[in-house]
Design a protein that fits this description.
The complex is a heterodimer of chains A (about 140) and B (about 250). By secondary structure, chain A is an all-alpha fold. Chain A is built from six helices and no strands. The relative contact order of chain A is 0.14. The radius of gyration of chain B is 22 Å and the shape is elongated. In chain B, strand 1 and strand 2 form a beta hairpin. In chain B, about 70% of the residues lie in helices and about 10% in strands. Classes of the chains: A mainly alpha (about 140), B mainly alpha (about 250).
């Protein structure tokens, strides 16, 4: 529950850094926070960061498309700030820390996890965008 | 003359999108949509650093224009403005000259004041510290570090030095202050403070946009963006790593 609130405000913060129009901030933050909640739930039951990230990216992508419909704005505006909490910044740092301490094994582990997670984010988002366009065909006129 | 104006319009729109963090696919389709509404057959090629547009009018005359993009940042409100502009334009509500004028205005606009952006960054970073399991005692140090780092980067940005150096300096400042603050007892968890603060530099958008470009089949942009993300990550890692190493050496740990 706490992480819901934290990610809500962190998305607002990053939305401001990315110059997102103020009207759209709450919507983007909400989708980011719900995505984070999804992450926590999957993490709790399966304890796999990669799975949790993919699920969360799918949720954020879906919400982004829905909000894009509601606000009549491109989905990217909601998705880019929304996925920020998923970005594996902590793993990049952990990998570096291990490298500095000469612990190659855990450095490799964290580094690989970073790669997996970023592919996971992109795959989740892509899946949503592709199927959304197939089913709802927003670009056909 | 109409050819050139149409080309300028499409090129400016594409350039603004590319500069402000839109994915390659969006850049290309926007330019194509604008040009096809003007009645041209167009071919657009965009990478993170260039836009090339070639158009063919009814009489078979060819025109080509290239725009080079040197510095990219993320400004979603500009993406939004260009997007709604291209929609209006395709409906035929806006003339060519007015369109070019409008886009030039958009290009100059700065949406939020730097101070407001810095404060937004502070909020974002400190919430991350909490999200990653930091306590409220780490909240204030992270806020302060984010403020210092973003202010310095905002000043450096005026000199337009390379992204790599920017990130290196940023991550070094973050680590130095995080070490200093925890050493002085202001803030408890060093790791949580650093992780929260480096989220400001982490190339999240480049990573995702890069992977998206790949999956759309824009291989060149995908490679370029991924390389950009890797370079940024290396810069951050080097900044944090070197500073930590130096600190451990000085303290004799």
């Amino acid at each position: 529950m706490l992480s819901f609130i934290y990610s809500f405000f962190s998305v607002i913060g990053f939305g401001i850094v990315f110059n997102l129009p103020i009207k759209l901030l709450p919507a983007a933050a909400l989708s980011g926070a719900i995505g984070q909640a999804g992450y926590d739930i999957v993490m709790h039951y399966f304890n796999s960061p990669t799975t949790a990230t993919v699920v969360s990216a799918v949720i954020i992508g879906l919400l982004g498309e829905i909000m894009a419909r509601l606000y009549k704005k491109p989905a990217t505006l909601f998705v880019i700030p929304g996925i920020i909490p998923l970005v594996p910044g902590s793993y990049i740092y952990q990998a570096m820390l291990s490298l500095v301490q000469g612990n190659m094994k855990s450095a490799g582990q964290y580094g690989l996890l970073t790669v997996f997670l970023s592919i996971g984010i992109a795959a989740g988002l892509m899946a949503v965008t592709t199927f959304w366009n197939i089913f709802f065909g927003s670009h056909k006129k | 003359m109409k050819n050139e104006k149409g080309l300028t319009l499409a090129d400016t729109a594409a350039e603004i999108l590319l500069k402000n963090g839109a994915e390659t696919r969006r850049v290309e389709t926007t330019a194509d949509m604008i040009l096809s509404s003007l009645g041209y057959v167009s071919h657009t090629f965009a990478t993170p650093t260039t836009v090339i547009i070639s158009i063919e009018d009814g009489s078979g005359k060819l025109n080509t224009a290239i725009r080079r993009v040197h510095f990219r940042l993320i400004n979603l409100s500009k993406v939004d403005m260009v997007n709604s502009f291209s929609r209006d334009f395709c409906k035929g509500n806006i003339g060519l000259d007015d369109g070019i004028k409008y886009l030039n205005e958009v290009n100059k606009k700065e949406k939020y004041k730097p101070l407001f952006r810095i404060l937004g960054g502070c909020l974002g970073a400190s919430m991350f510290t909490l999200l990653f399991g930091g306590t409220w005692t780490d909240f204030l140090p992270t806020c302060l570090i984010a403020f210092i780092t973003l202010s310095v980067l905002e000043i450096i940005a005026k000199y337009q030095i390379s992204d790599f150096l920017n990130n290196l300096i940023g991550s070094m400042i973050i680590t130095v202050f995080a070490l200093l603050f925890t050493y002085l007892g202001f803030g408890v968890s060093l790791n949580k403070i650093i992780i929260g603060s480096i989220m400001l530099l982490v190339p999240g958008v480049a990573i995702t946009n890069g992977a998206r470009d790949f999956m759309y089949g824009d291989l060149l942009s995908g490679t370029a963006r991924t390389a950009e993300a890797v370079m940024t990550a290396i810069a951050i890692a080097a900044g944090v790593g070197v500073t930590l190493q130096a600190w451990f050496y000085i303290r004799g740990i």
